[in-house]
């Protein structure tokens, strides 16, 4: 609505016209009356919809400074494409994002957000939350700053938890302060930049709290959390010693109890998995697996050599960035499958020919075990080999790409594999059998991993509905691809004639490919083949080349396509009566994750 811009205009006018020659200071009431005259207050109140009586936290960013990585950046010219910063927020099931601003040493991150502060229990929804209840809410505002470069690649700049309760002790429930944002991963101890933040509570409290009370509450929460974490660490060490005493070879097994997040904080692995329901955004477990596989796989960046830098991510940082390592994919998929009512676990082990890896396992009520590869959405039915069976008894062939498994975990269970061999093909996943799996105490895990158990546990963000219009982005990308094909053929001194009807027919094939990726079932191919046969006259040849991408960068996609000799043959086709076709279909999922399908085709008269 650009409320800020409209208010600034009115204020400038009011100062100019109402002060006159007397130079009288204008009061807040004068400004409010001016805004009412213009109808701005009515517009704002009409467009704000709040579900229940609640306090509102107005969080305004007043700009950034000291983002020293961009000290040398020059001012972007008007219309010039440049890297951008975008700020994402999550607070008590509400998510927001800022408009993109050009990256700079002092980025123009000036934007306001209204956050609802409501009760947890639905029965008291009609009552306003009082100061004491707000003080006991330890949910921080999670801020995630993402940098997007000119090619569309995203980088996580900072992930920060803002304790907003300082506003409860500020005069008139208003305060303004600077927040030093630290870097992530190996740079988590180095400042990334500073954001100036203004907080205001509406309606203000009749009586603000004493600052000492707020400080004491925060201190008590920290002490309680530290004590719970200390006790869990003592228990985890004892549990690990017992596990090593079972068999000396257990020392080399991949058993993961703690993992570092983007801020360098060590957290129990079970805290990375929660029961996540996607509302109406995802229809079934297989569609959830497809969605997770569309988030780009990228290992945590490492400065210099030294192999893989392990960094797990909070769910908010992973979703905002739209890419992460296999651990981020596996914990998200496991959370979604738990939400769909499946008995799901994350497996930590190794993959054939590629070292450490994580994937997801589900157990059916009939005892069947299914592996889910979170990076591809492939599913594998697991049938273990019986090493004690007679030599002539046929054994199942390994169907999955996984080699060893050291442990499995979900939001309330962690089990270490204590079978003689950790080879996946020999592994029996009967978790109740204590001679095969050593379980951690569920009570101990609950004390540090259950939602709300500690103040340091990041809150679970909801998934966001896509904001992209599939038809619009498909059309835009298709026009770009047509232009690139025409230009490429112009360089080869070949004319380009498009066949719109043939292009349209390719849609059904692309739709069938995506459905197959989602469900594992192929359908609609007969109709497509029949339509193509009818569209291609006798004596003509048809060639088609489908390809799949996870990004919407036309030039990058076209360069990839030309690397395939089949596609190059179609794009550069010469001959008699050549007609070209291209169809692009973008399937949009939550968080604007996209499956991009393209098909290039040509038909031409065959000349012997």
Automatic annotation (TrEMBL):
Keywords, comma-separated and alphabetical: Cytoplasm, Cytoskeleton
Domain CEP76 C2 per the UniProt entry, residue ranges: 57-206
Domain CEP76/DRC7 peptidase-like: 310-440
UniProt GO cellular component terms: centriole
Primary site of residence: cytoplasm
GO biological process, one term: regulation of centriole replication
Cell location: Cytoplasm, Cytoskeleton, Microtubule organizing center, Centrosome, Centriole
One Pfam family hit: CEP76_C
Signal peptide: none
Gene3D superfamilies: 3.10.620.30
Domain CEP76 N-terminal: residue ranges: 1-48
Segments forming domain Centrosomal protein of 76 kDa C-terminal: 468-605
Family of the protein in this entry: Belongs to the CEP76 family.
Function comment: Centrosomal protein involved in regulation of centriole duplication. Required to limit centriole duplication to once per cell cycle by preventing centriole reduplication.
PANTHER family: CENTROSOMAL PROTEIN OF 76 KDA
Protein name in UniProt: Centrosomal protein of 76 kDa
Protein's organism: Xiphophorus couchianus
């Amino acid at each position: 609505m650009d409320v800020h811009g409209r208010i600034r205009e009115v204020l400038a006018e009011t100062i100019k016209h109402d002060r006159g020659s007397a130079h009288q200071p204008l009061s807040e009431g004068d400004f409010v009356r001016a805004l009412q005259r213009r109808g701005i207050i009515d517009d704002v109140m009409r467009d704000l919809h709040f579900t229940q009586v609640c306090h509102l936290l107005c969080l305004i960013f007043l700009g950034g400074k000291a983002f020293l990585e961009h000290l040398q950046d020059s001012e972007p010219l008007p219309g010039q494409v440049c890297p951008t910063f975008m700020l994402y927020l999550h607070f008590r099931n509400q998510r927001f994002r800022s408009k993109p601003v050009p990256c700079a040493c002092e980025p123009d991150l000036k934007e306001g957000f209204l956050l609802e502060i409501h009760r947890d229990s639905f029965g008291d929804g009609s009552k306003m939350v009082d100061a004491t209840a707000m003080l006991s809410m330890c949910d921080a505002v999670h801020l995630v700053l993402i940098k997007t470069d000119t090619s569309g690649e995203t980088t996580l700049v900072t992930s920060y938890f803002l304790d907003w309760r300082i506003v409860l002790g500020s005069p008139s429930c208003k305060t303004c302060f600077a927040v030093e944002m630290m870097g992530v991963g190996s740079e988590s101890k180095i400042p990334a930049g500073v954001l100036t933040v203004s907080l205001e509570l509406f309606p203000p409290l009749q009586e603000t709290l004493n600052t000492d009370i707020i400080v004491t509450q925060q201190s008590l929460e920290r002490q309680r959390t530290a004590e719970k974490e200390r006790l869990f660490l003592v228990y985890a060490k004892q549990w690990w010693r017992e596990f090593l005493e079972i068999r000396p070879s257990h020392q080399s097994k991949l058993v993961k109890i703690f993992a570092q997040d983007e801020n360098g904080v060590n957290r129990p692995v079970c805290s990375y998995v929660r029961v996540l329901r996607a509302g109406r955004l995802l229809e079934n477990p297989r569609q959830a697996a497809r969605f997770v596989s569309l988030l780009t796989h990228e290992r945590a960046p490492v400065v210099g050599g030294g192999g893989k830098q392990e960094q797990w991510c909070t769910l908010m940082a992973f979703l905002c960035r739209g890419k992460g390592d296999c651990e981020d994919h596996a914990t998200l998929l496991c959370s979604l499958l738990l939400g769909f009512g499946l008995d799901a676990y994350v497996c930590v082990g190794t993959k054939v020919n590629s070292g450490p890896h994580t994937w997801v396992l589900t157990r059916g009520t009939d005892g069947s075990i299914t592996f889910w590869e979170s990076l591809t959405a492939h599913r594998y039915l697991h049938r273990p080999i019986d090493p004690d069976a007679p030599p002539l008894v046929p054994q199942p062939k390994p169907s999955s790409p996984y080699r060893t498994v050291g442990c499995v975990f979900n939001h309330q269970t962690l089990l270490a594999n204590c079978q003689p061999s950790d080879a996946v093909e020999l592994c029996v996943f009967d978790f109740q059998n204590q001679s095969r799996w050593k379980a951690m105490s569920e009570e101990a895990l609950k004390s540090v991993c259950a939602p709300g158990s500690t103040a340091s546990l990041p809150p679970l963000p909801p998934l966001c509905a896509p904001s992209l219009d599939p038809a619009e982005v498909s059309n835009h990308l298709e026009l770009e691809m047509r232009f690139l094909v025409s230009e490429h053929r112009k360089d080869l001194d070949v004319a380009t004639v498009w066949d719109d009807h043939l292009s349209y027919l390719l849609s059904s094939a692309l739709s069938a490919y995506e459905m197959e990726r989602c469900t594992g079932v192929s359908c609609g191919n007969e109709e497509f083949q029949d339509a193509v046969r009818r569209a291609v006259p006798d004596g003509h040849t048809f060639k088609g080349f489908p390809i799949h991408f996870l990004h919407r960068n036309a030039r990058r996609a076209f360069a990839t396509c030309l690397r395939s000799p089949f596609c190059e043959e179609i794009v550069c086709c010469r001959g008699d009566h050549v007609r070209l076709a291209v169809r692009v279909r973008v399937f949009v999922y939550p968080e604007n994750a996209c499956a991009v399908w393209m098909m290039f085709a040509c038909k031409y008269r065959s000349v012997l």
